[in-house]
Amino acid sequence: MEIAKRLQGVGEYYFSKKLREIDELNKQGKHIINLGIGSPDLPPHPEVIQTLQEEAQKPNVHGYQNYKGSPVLREAFAGWYRRWYGVELNPEAEVLPLIGSKEGIMHICMTYLNEGDAALVPNPGYPTYRSNVTIAGGVCIDYELKEANGYQPDLEAIETKDLSRVKLMFVNYPQMPTGQQPDMEVFRKLIAFAKKHGILLVHDNPYSFILNEHPASILSIDGAKEVTVELNSLSKSHNMAGWRVGVLCGAAVRINEVLRFKSNMDSGMFLPVQLAAATALSLGNDWHEEVNAVYSARRKKVYDLLDLLGCRYSKEQVGLFVWAAIPEGYKDGYELADAVLYNADVFITPGGIFGDAGDRYIRISLCGSVQRFDEAIARVNTQITKIRS
Ligand SMILES: Cc1ncc(COP(=O)(O)O)c(C=O)c1O
């Protein structure tokens, strides 16, 4: 059966393919240490699990749910935005719970893009922006994030491109994969740029609580809601990646437009998951401090590993990864990542999967215990001559 044209040019997700290869290597008796993927290995807060357990015992929670999410969860998201980001949201109209923020990216593309419409996507950036724009029939126009420019978009350079068909611009700070922190001045400029060109800014914000002292939302800027929507997620901030809970926040009119698509795609989330997510959103700073203390200890190990590999990196990065420039002598990050995988049985992510601007970089995830990092460092140390040759 011939697959639909919309999937042409969209390959299987890199991790989906690579994890299959790692499975094969493990079946052959290897014990690959996976430092590639950003799936938190720590559990959610015990109260979150308790809420799920208690709610799931009840007889009347198993039916289809409201397409706009439970009012309890919408209130909890609105309270969370007020408390941490200083943003007022109407829980009835400006908050749309999602089954993870990844699905929100697709909903937005399907809601706004006609065949041939364009979206500005960061390079390097989360690969899902590119694939979802393409699947929706749109065309991606890359904007490069350069280390020399602090990984911020160069709006003057973007304005030299043909923007006539651009309807969406994806932006993401703390930036994945570069770890660049948000800058309110840049957000202001982005909002002015979006207003000038009639573009909907989509700010993707899943990393604001990871090793970041100042969680920030683009929606805290005056007038942002006129041209901006924001995606957020509990996957990283609350160690709930497998639970699939995210949110779209923005003006009521945008939320209703996206709901038109989404309500035709799914039938809501299991109510106990939504109620447990509300518990997670009510956690205080202690929770984030506890989680960040763990990530901070791991990050020191990542620095040691990167030093061993001769990579260059900034210690100002935030988020769940460390992004690092590879040394001379390797063709690209793929070559270094493969040398580490096949010689030392350690998987790290080549930066090129985030766009060609990432070709000379690698990304290491903080989702592994200190013991695993120690083991990874020991393996790389033993094989360093082979890795370098
Ligand atoms: C930048 C970025 N946005 C969105 C997501 C998706 O997160 P979720 O688990 O909420 O779908 C990820 C996941 O890795 C990500 O890195």
TrEMBL record:
The keyword Transferase applies. It is an enzyme of class 2 (transferase). SUPFAM superfamilies: PLP-dependent transferases. Its EC number is 2.6.1.-. InterPro entries: Aminotransferase_I/II_large, LL-DAP_aminotransferase, NHTrfase_class1_PyrdxlP-BS, PyrdxlP-dep_Trfase, PyrdxlP-dep_Trfase_major, PyrdxlP-dep_Trfase_small. Keywords: Aminotransferase, Transferase. Residues 31-379 form the Aminotransferase class I/classII large domain. GO terms for molecular function: transaminase activity. Its cofactor is pyridoxal 5'-phosphate. Pfam families: Aminotran_1_2. CDD domains: AAT_like (cd00609). Belongs to the class-I pyridoxal-phosphate-dependent aminotransferase family. This is Aminotransferase. It comes from Niabella pedocola. The lineage of its organism: Bacteria, Pseudomonadati, Bacteroidota, Chitinophagia, Chitinophagales.
